[in-house]
Protein: 3-oxoacyl-[acyl-carrier-protein] synthase
Amino acid sequence: MVKSYWSQFLRSHFRIKRSFSSSVSQVFGPPPRAPQRRVVVTGLGMVTPLGCGVETTWKRLVEGGCGIRALTPEDLKLDVLDRETQLHTFDQLTSKVAAMVPCGDNAGEFNEELWLNSKEHRSVARFIAYALCSTEEALKDANWIPTEKEKERTGVSIGAGIGSISDILNASQMVCEKHLRRLSPFFVPRILINMAAGHVSMKYGFKGPNHAAVTACATGAHSVGDAARMIQFGDADIMIAGGTESSIDALSIAGFCRLRALSTKRNSVPQEASRPFDCGRDGFVIGEGSGVMVLEELEHAQERGAKIYAEIRGYGLSGDAYHITQPHNDGRGAILAMTHALKQSGLHLDQVDYINAHATSTPLGDMIEANAIKSVFSDHATSGALALSSTKDLASGRTIGKGNMVNGLYVLDSDLKGAPQACQGTQARHILGVLLVIFLEQQEQWKQSLQC
Structure:
């Protein structure tokens, strides 16, 4: 009886399913083709360990400046703990170097009173404040002052890797001390990654797509790539895109130390600690800051006479499905990402003349990345026509959520203003590599392509 019932039910179910599928194909035509829209960069904003602002950062970079310094107990954001516990925690950290944003009220410094300490910023954690600061600069640079209607076509895509761990640590201390009722009502809004994009949207009234990637070191690149696709697909005309991070605190540093990911051999010489592809590399230096670009549809930018820095031609993303921290020995993830980006860009291998490397400064990571580059670019990688480097050793260490983003901004500035000097940290180098995500063409070549 039961068997008979189920056989009747299944026959009825599949008849309905076949009927529905058939009717859908007859009633609905295919969706409209996605428009082929080109995406350009029209504004830049930065908060980095070299300083606050694109010009300040670039000036220090070309002068050979370095934003990496020795940590102190006060840098660990342990104000809720007694002094003895603070010092004990500091002593237990095996890595005692970091790249921190310079704070103060002087030119080129991050003004905490302006961005963090006012009453209206109680829901703003440091990583959010960095994003707000770099966004303000990028919008001014792009000269984008939209009307109410234009705000509906302006979106935000800003991600972070970790967020505000220090807020979580402070809140957990309240639990331990049985003072949970003192927890700030702004605790949750301060720790949510999406609130960086949310605060930018609320401050400027941008009603387009609001997006927040959380993909560790690839966050900044994914934020820009996803935003470019939103413009290409027609969801927006302008996207504020980038990454932000503020993870210089006791818990974050201790966690990376336990992973054996941080540099520990050069605590006494901080400026020599970050050394991507160097024979003596022993891990990355943790950093903080934010990098933001204004992305814009090409014709929209041309119609309003916007300054155009570059065009985004290709975006590739992948996973190697292998290990939580260690890349696969054959570099399959990086190879897939680069191959996808190249295919989408329409460029030939020999048309790529510079790669800015991810460069973790770990012994295994750098070697695998270099081999992935050689695998994709073959003879072009060793021909001398393909320049390869990493900007992490120049200035800012590894800023988890915004690292790719700031590297991209360094590349844009170097294209316009000339290459910077090398920081003193790096010595003998192996061949370099990169998780290649964004292709930016040379200005003159790009201008010529517009005539085609």
